[in-house]
Specification:
Elements: E1 2-6, E2 13-23, E3 26-32, E4 38-44, E5 47-50, H1 58-75
Antiparallel strand pairs: 1-2, 2-3, 3-4, 4-5
Length: about 80
């Protein structure tokens, strides 16, 4: 699936790929940037958290989490 979000730093449109990912037995999603860099997020207690990188901008995670919420209800990403 793809997400089209606004970058919280400059409001530019950012197209991300989202792929289901098993992370140590937890259902998560791999977020892939256009340049192919990526990170994994899992939902814990209703909040999305990055689990495989040291630092990802928290504002970006919030924007991605909000974009994932409606989709998660319909395709078992939650």
């Amino acid at each position: 699936m793809e997400l089209l979000i606004k970058d919280p730093h400059n409001d530019a449109e950012l197209r991300l790929s989202v792929e289901p990912e098993d992370y140590n037995g937890e259902q998560g999603v791999r977020i892939v940037y256009p340049n192919k860099d990526s990170f994994v997020m899992v939902q814990k207690d209703g909040d999305w958290e990055v689990v495989d990188e040291d630092f990802v901008n928290p504002e970006l995670i919030e924007v991605i989490g909000k974009a994932l919420q409606p989709r998660a209800r319909y395709n078992s990403l939650s």
